């Protein structure tokens, strides 16, 4: 790089050098006018003032727009995308059609406003640039609306003294329309009254504007610290003035830590420095009204405002009270007086917890910002004369740093005072303004309600969800219903979220579940990868090829050495609610991961991470979290009083305004199309070709093999071994009919009429529109049979609504008790597991409007099954191995799985709606020569059938050389439960399986064993314990982990020396036992410590060699969850 392309900059304290290359991109329109013969660096003309009647040409706007869009799309890594090209073409076309105007998108506006602050060469506090809160007020049309927005800005930014950086952006300048302007130089400023003798009471810098306000009809009190009114003009109309409500203006009364007399001077200053007369220039578009604020550096008040000779000029007054000699300059009385004023300012702000920074801290902060900018941007425009503090200048680090000043866009520009170019209407200023103010003053009362209504147009709240079962989506909807009373809410699935908007979010809530393996739900995977990539990019980590690196929960927190850097999510306030079951070892793993990465990337918690356990208290925990989140968000973004927050809580925030409309058509859309619309996935229809019972008829259990034909949509049903198929079940016609007995249609339509769900659009069109959550049409019977979940126990929220629909006092009391008592609800849910039909039968007085069913029931979710066939040997056939779920409840009732029992009775030839879900983390090794070890008791064998069939096909065709395959299977009894026995033994004989190890846990033993058990049973009475019986019985039970431990030496060799892949599929309890057994093997055979064994398993997981497919509901679901559930119930009592 030649020296012509960079400027060397030296720090005179430490002799360190840096270079600036960013100046090469400086805007020529505001180049510093210096020559070889003279320097104008200290002349204020460096900032060009913009006049109202100066409009850019279309060509100039196009040029600046293209530069800005290039910078924006480069920042989100989409510079070379089709999206960028389309957006650029759209903008250029808009500029041509609309006479030099186009509309910036919200993310573009946010990026531009933050970047303009980053580019501001005269600001010493720019290290906070990414935390700027943007209020988009481009929709505003009147002066009173401007005033309302400015009050909200002041309220948000002041934040009871904890100042927050913010900007409010009003409509842009355009030809043929007058400007929107804030006439005040600062939103809050003190008046200056010029007296007849030429003296001034108040702030001398405000005299001209004070006189203008008086001409408009404002009358001040004539004091030293009278807050001026806000004067605004909208769309070129005459200005209107408004007094700022006193409760919005935070003023700090000054005291001195040592001099008591200082307080008697009655000095004070406002806490919010909000510049309001500058122009925001972004992408060729100019915004003449864009008030923005940071917070004070103490010298701005202590030196400039209070001590400058042309301001309050208090140095002599202070020196006199200090009894200093003011007759001679050599006593440095001015310096000493100024120092004490600054001490008083800092002390007083800190005493009332108002944000302020001293000039030394500000200087050090800027030096860190300068270092960051030179490292990551190649330079930092800096006006040295402006940023060096006025007090103790040479003692600050910035004083000794060479800088270079230049102008970049987007930018904030000075402009001429509004009144100096404004063309007034003929009507008298005083009469019109007095009238307008009185009308507005009567209409506008600054209660929390008004503040909330105004703010709701601006503060955006995004709710992201990811879910396998739909519960997270339901919770997200409930949270959205609560927040939309005040905020501009958008709730969206993670899969559909445009991650380029993330850094421009303000308030974000995440509600997510976690898969059994601890991984994200399918519709949360892309978001997980985005967060991982964002972290990798920020911390300059190498791109990992490891499968699970982005979900490692034991990884270290953010690096300390980067503490000073501005983090990409630093402007986001967030909270995460996780859903899961504590029966799983990686309980709510994905929610924890999101929470941790958001913190590492700089986001600020609105609330701590909350985890809801489906084994107890999940709904209650969500309700508590939602209300706390709402309350905290209200207080964070505006000071709502308790009464109004309480009002919001008393609203029924679970119901939406919806209705059903009968359509004049005979047939609804197909089930496939309806499910595709609800799930937002491409659903295919597969034909049930065959069903085989895999267990003996006397087993007491059923496992079936179903064979599906995907010939109708082969391209949409492509799969690989290890993938899942998602099957959408059908509620039984009997259960649907039972529910319909309690439905009250009021004669408008029958259960078989075609209807449409509609919602009332309150925010935009104010009319009824189709509800996008539902298919375009359906019948009530079809909805209950194919779309809605009527088999899960109703939630407490729905129970409360059912109570309100009951006509019998006994039914009402029963339902209310269940809806309000968390412990009784959990006991009821576990003991009875009542479906909606059974509950309605128990409470027959309930009469249900159809709209309640459709809006409050969750959608019927697909069931996921491992595919048990090979796409090579059967490309249009999908086999599934399915346990028919059928178990006894604690109350003696029978619980049947909806999907497995439906598939077990469905006639052959029937159509089954489904889709393939890829499982990239449960695939055969990319290198087929590597050995594999698979463990799958019971239906955990399902995915491994696809493995051995794939290997069998490859072996017969001679396509590739394959590594060894060792299979471990477990079941109860050999003759009854050994599924795929003949197929497994044949594969073992052919060499497809190198070893076949089978464990039987309930195999009948020899008579002598039974005799031994009887003797031990009798003997145990002497010990008053059945410990020996349990122990003796376990001696004759064999599980897969027992076989693993016996083969420990060979397994150790395969894992540590031959890079074998280890697969386990089954219920959560078995998977945990297998992991424990592996650690035992690593310690016994390999001599590892506990930590070394644990780390080894983590490492092979990270390198994609340890694969788990864990599911929860099995034949022994009660055994797995009862212990965890009881512990949860005990902890709930403490909530």
From TrEMBL:
Its cofactor is FMN; FAD; heme b. Keywords: Calmodulin-binding, FAD, Flavoprotein, FMN, Heme, Iron, Membrane, Metal-binding, NADP, Oxidoreductase, Transmembrane, Transmembrane helix. Residues 681-925 form the FAD-binding FR-type domain. CDD domains: NOS_oxygenase_euk (cd00795). It comes from the Eukaryota. It is an enzyme of class 1 (oxidoreductase). Binds 1 FMN. GO terms for molecular function: calmodulin binding; flavin adenine dinucleotide binding; FMN binding; heme binding; metal ion binding; NADP binding; nitric-oxide synthase activity. Heme b binds at residue 123. Pfam families: FAD_binding_1, Flavodoxin_1, NAD_binding_1, NO_synthase. InterPro entries: CysJ-like_FAD-binding, FAD-bd_FR_type, Flavdoxin-like, Flavodoxin/NO_synth, Flavoprot_Pyr_Nucl_cyt_Rdtase, Flavoprotein-like_sf, FNR_nucleotide-bd, NADPH_Cyt_P450_Rdtase_alpha. The chain crosses the membrane at residues 1012-1036. PANTHER family: NITRIC OXIDE SYNTHASE, NITRIC OXIDE SYNTHASE OXYGENASE. Belongs to the NOS family. Produces nitric oxide (NO) which is a messenger molecule with diverse functions. This is Nitric oxide synthase. It comes from Dimorphilus gyrociliatus.
